[in-house]
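REQUEST FORM: STRUCTURE PREDICTION
Request ID: SP-0412
Submitted by: Lab K.M.
Chain count: 1
Length (residues): 65
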Amino acid sequence: MKTWFDYRSVWAAHRWLLAYFVVVIAILALAIYGMVLGHGPLLLLFLPALAGLYAHHLLVMKRLD
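STATUS: Completed
RESULT:
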């Protein structure tokens, strides 16, 4: 459970990472919405959203060191 506290401490120090996370989660939600309803253009956002989440994870881990 230490990972959650790591994220929270980095978000407290770097507010822009929290904003980035919220934007990426919103894009992922739109992609899932598009997947469920069959909207093609929204479905194309799924892989970039996953890449954005991974980039966020890497940025947080870099800030921890």
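NOTES: Residues 15-37 form the longest helix (23 residues).
Reviewed by: T.R.
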